[in-house]
Amino acid sequence: MTGKHKENFNQNYLNYVNSFDPPTKHFKNCFRAFMVGGLICCIGQFLRYMLERLFGLSGDVLAGTVSIFLIFLGTFLTGLGVYDRIGRNAGAGSIVPITGFANSVASPAMEFKTEGFIYGLAAKMFIVAGPIIVYGVLVGATTGIVYYILGLFGVV
Question: What's the pTM value of the predicted model, to 2 decimals?
Answer without folding.
Answer: 0.67
